[in-house]
Design brief:
By secondary structure, the chain is of the alpha/beta class. The protein has helices at residues 48-52, 57-88, 109-113, 116-137, 150-158, 162-172, 182-199; strands at residues 2-11, 14-21, 28-36, 91-100, 142-146. The two termini are 17 Å apart.
Length: 200
Amino acid sequence: MTKAAVGFRAHSGWSALVAVAAGARWPVVIDRRRIELADAAIPGSMQPYHAAEPMKLKDAEACIQRSIDQARRLAQRALHAAIDELRKSGHEVAGCGILLASGRPAPALAAILASHALIHTAEGELFRDALRYASERCKLPVTAVKERDLFERAAAELRIPSGELQRRVAEMGRAIGPPWRQDQKLAALVGWLALAGDVE
């Protein structure tokens, strides 16, 4: 079994997932997919804090909790499926990387719902937290990195200059083909960090 790791870059209601495995010189991309973290058929599930904004606080709390529960279920199901497929292709998933936002502590729900900016922040956190929950349930160690620090941290930990690192990440997508946009590149790099941490 070849060691592998998965990286995530979350959005409202979904996440990019990229799996990387140990290669001869640097990791190779072995899977790339979009995983759903909300059911688009359920009104408000893609942006639960927006949906909860006009509600009374008690109803808003229930709405948010339903979305948290659903996102966790979907994340766990999607990660299990990815791990199973990778295992069948000869890869052992040893960890995962998750990109974070600024990481400021969230205020109480009433304060969040009173601020449009905080609503957006809270939605991002909800889906990132679902990915962390799924990873922990799958017994995978989590490498969490603030997105703005990713290249600096990766350059230091992998001992590769930042410019060279960006070139390598761009090239990693060639073998698997498009799409290989910013979502996939950043997910691949945080997955690489998770893989490097396990290999050490």
